[in-house]
Each structure stands twice: as C-alpha cells, then as structure tokens.
Amino acid sequence: MIELRSDTFTLPTREMLRAMGEAPLGDDVYGEDPTTNRLEQLAATTLGKEAGCFMPSGTMANLASIMAHAPRGAKVLVGDESDIYIYEAAGASVCGGIAYEPIPTQPDGRLLLADLAKGFPDDPDDPQFALPALICLENTHNRSGGAVLPMEYLRGVRRFADERDVPIHLDGARIFNAAVGAGVPVADIARYADSVQFCLSKGLSAPIGSMVVGTGAFITRVRRIRKMLGGGMRQTGVVAAAGILAIENADRLAEDHRNAERLALGLAKIPGVDVLPAKTRTNIVMFRVTDDRFTWQTFAQAAARHGLAVAELGHGRLRAVTHRGVSAQDVDEAIAVVERVLAGPAVPVEAEAGAGHRA
Prior knowledge:
Blueprint: E1 2-3, H1 14-22, H2 34-46, E2 51-55, H3 58-69, E3 75-79, H4 83-87, H5 91-96, E4 99-103, H6 113-117, E5 132-138, H7 151-164, E6 168-171, H8 175-182, H9 186-190, E7 195-199, E8 210-214, H10 216-228, H11 237-248, H12 253-268, E9 273-275, E10 284-289, H13 296-305, E11 308-309, E12 311-312, E13 318-321, H14 328-343
Parallel strand pairs: 1-11, 3-4, 3-5, 5-6, 6-7
Antiparallel strand pairs: 2-8, 7-8, 9-10, 10-13, 12-13
Helix pairs in contact: 1-11, 2-11, 3-10, 12-14
C-alpha cells in the first residue's frame, strides 16, 4: 500500500530505534529524565525560545498552550478552517471555559487583520462581551493544502497583536515544513509567536509526541496544565530520543516537498482531477475528483483496491501527504493508480470506513 493519507504514518528510522533503546532515562514528572531535558532544550534553542515542554500529542500541546494563555471566560480567535477549531474536540471550551471565535480563513491560510479586528469589542469595558485573550495561527496550514504563511503577513499579525496586548500562539504542527518551504530558519518563523506547538510525529518521523516552546514562565504554566490533563509521563526519554534525531535531521523534509510537487504535477495532467491549489509548496497535495461517475468515497475505495491510500479533508477534497515512507517511485505509481481508477468503471459506494480526520 502506498500510504498518502497522512505523514503521521511515518515510522522511526533505524537510528531512532537504536537511540530509543540506548537513551538515558529518569522520571520526567520530577524533571529528571536527561534525554527529555535535552530534547526540550534543543527544541527551545532551535526555535529561538527560552524553554520547551514535551507533550504526548499536538492536540494536548495546543490545548495546554491555549489554557496557559487565556483565562476562563475569555475567547480565543481561531481560523474557521484551522485544526484547533475543527479537529481538536473544542478542548479549550470543555476544559478551560474558553470560547472560540472562528475567523474566516483565506484560501492561503491567512486570517485577515480586518477580520481579526472584528473579534475585539468596540468597548472592552462593556461586561456583555468576552474579551480576546489569544490569537491562534496555523503554519503550514493543513486544510489550505500545506500553505506557508508569508513572513510579511506574520510580521503584520505580530504588530496587530502587540497593539492590542494579546499574545499569539502558533499551531506549527508542520512548522519545519514551513521553514523548508520558505527557505528560512525555523526560528525566523517562530519569532513572531509567543508560543509554538510542533509535532515530532508527522514528517519529522518520530513515533510519538509534540513540543511546546515559549518563555520560561509560560512553559511552567504549560507543565502544570499538562499534569492536570493527564499528560505527565515518566521515562519519556524512550521516545524523546527519537525526537532529538527528528529535529536534528529536519532538512530532509525537502525531499518530501519535491515528491509532493511531482505528485501535484502528475495529477494535474489527468482528466477528471483538479489539484487545489495548483501550486504545492510543502508536503500536502489537495485534489478533487471531477469525474461525475465517482464520489470522493468511491474514488478512495477504488484507489485502495489498487494499493493507494488517500483520504478526504474537508469540502469533498482528497488529501495526499508525502513523507519519509514515500519514494519518488511510489509517487509515480500513485499517479498511475489514479489514472487506472479513472479509466475504469465506477464502483458503488460501500459502507463508509476510515473517513475520520487524520492530522
């Protein structure tokens, strides 16, 4: 099976497995796991922040960050197409008493400053209104096809937030993809956010975990919330060792981007397929099957029978994600599978399976 549903299907490398087996261990809840401590310092230094905290998942990392920034009764401004708003089970509302205000998302993942401004009441002293306590951005932007937020845009949001004394949290699940796609050090992107979450377990290929980075005081609050949420783990160096190698070898993501571009160009040549957007900059390719003999469900089922796994990601679009486990040869075969499926007969819809979101 050529697995293009998500880069979460990556497997740890041999070097990662070896490091995991040899990692010095301690109790991380006591702050005494040396490998985890090393990972947290590496993450913070790499992104230009003071401190870091290892988290079990990106969802918990975003949730703990939002709760550390925003008090109960406040609201957080989030994109209406963001992973935080759509795919993270309203955790800030459930666990933190924090309201989400969805902001229209542009096709390239931006939240326009004019739209963000509408989230601030004209009279902040009017007790009828919940006050914004945080702005959340997403980079790369998943449902916008792995779009990289422009650096000038990030600078503009930073100025906007500073003028209103509101912090910025960046859901940077794929921030290393954004850095490679923009051709800049990852710290140049992170500098415009007060806190950043990034995943070790997507394109970086570690088996488990995400990181939160920010100021030392902020990370202290995040640790407390992590414990409350049940995320305090013990000998985490077993998996943190893989995270260290993941960060140190992040430049290899450029290969995934080249394969995604190869895939997008190949799919765009097939009648009955629209690639959206037409330009691919990172490792996500979004496309729509326009052959009216197929729904996205029947197409995905037929592709799976031919050895290609893809999944829907909003508005009937299919998503294909390149990663370490997908070679250029796999990409060429994936293009051939799509051609074979669309050249063959349509198939009836079966009971829907596997249609849930995979980050």
